[in-house]
Design brief:
This protein is α/β, with parallel strands linked by helices. Helices cover 38% and strands 17% of the residues.
Amino acid sequence: MNRGKALAPISKTLKQIFSEKQMRLAIVGLGISGRTLLKFLELINYPKNLITSFSDNPSEADFHDSQQLLKDFNPQVLIVSPGYPLKSSWIIEFQKNGFLVTNESEIAFSFIKAEKVIGVTGSVGKSTVVALLEQGFKAVYPETFVGGNYGVPLLQYVIDLKKNLRPPAEWVVVELSSYQLENFRNLKLHIAAICSFFSNHLERYESRLDYFKTKWKIFDQAEMGLINAANPMLVEFSKTQINSKIQTVTPDQFDLIKKSKLVGSFQGQNAALALSILKFSLPEISDFRKASDPLLNFKGLPHRLEFVAEINSTRFINDSKSTTVDSVVAALSAVCESACKVLLLLGGRDKNLPWQTLGPELSKNNFKNIQIDIIFFGQDGDKIKKISGLPGIGQGPSLKSIIPLLAQVFQNYQTVLLSPGGTSWDEFKSFNARGDFFKKEILQLKACCATSKPIV
């Protein structure tokens, strides 16, 4: 059914939509970005009768059947959450009929004026790079906005400006996921950076190549691009692309990296990328020095190679954010720089990852003479064990279920590493909740060991 003519180009269309306030809008997905959109529409007095919501969860939205949405509400614009697949047949058909599919980030960016914007993406490490940039930029420009996939939607910045809750920022730093980059046509960046390429989200993308191409879109309208030259997959893919604006970054470009408080060489790569962005953004030597000091003193984000405790000479590391095979390997590489006996906690819910590659990775030279034992856990722990072909010293249906075994065996290892590879959704609402549970259990274990109480 042809429901109308194609709308105007995106930059003009968004301005028309929110100035004329005449189009019917359907918000698809009511996560953090969807809820922020509702706040924004209320703030600009967009007519309530022209707004509706859609979600697969009927308790969250006005509609939960896409065909009913199209028939009964007849939307002219879909504002789609990054987590909702744009390749859904009804969304594709909606676009073919000439109607606009946009998102919270595109809408927010149409209100960006004089701000200089830094964008960071990558399979692993992008949140750490953004956190490092937050430390650096705010030391020189305290009003810097940091957000996007990092936690605070970019549209929240626009809302706060309109409500006079903050002044305009000189710099805006945003973390961008592949989901956000799928449909972000007005993204114009001062500097764009990619920290790593690893296999990820293969349940959403047709192939690893398709996933990489989506990430690479961050450079489409960037004045300058930076990539981590120490990441093999990223470097190999970059050779297939032609872009004279892109420069490579390695840790040996900065003697300052030796002062970084982050754990492992992979985190050193993240620090080098952040320092490069600061160097190009803050050409004054005094500003760069002022920015680099807090960056180098940053100890890391929660749930990303986070030190939890040391019990009887055994370190416990929380890397709950790890939800790819490659992030597991990266975490092991980091901890094995200072430990030769490691107990890995591996599992959760799988997302069609190439677990068969984990064994060959662990047989490479950087793991030579390293003892790595595994406890599998979670909904797909058994599946991961079978596909990887790796033996385990134990297994359980949940992270909670393996804690008693962990308490019995941890003293045989120098490091216990929670780097699950799988998502947390089988047992927890988020990787944060999973990591917080792990930290709580380990601190309780430490208290029991200190008082010589038996561990139940």
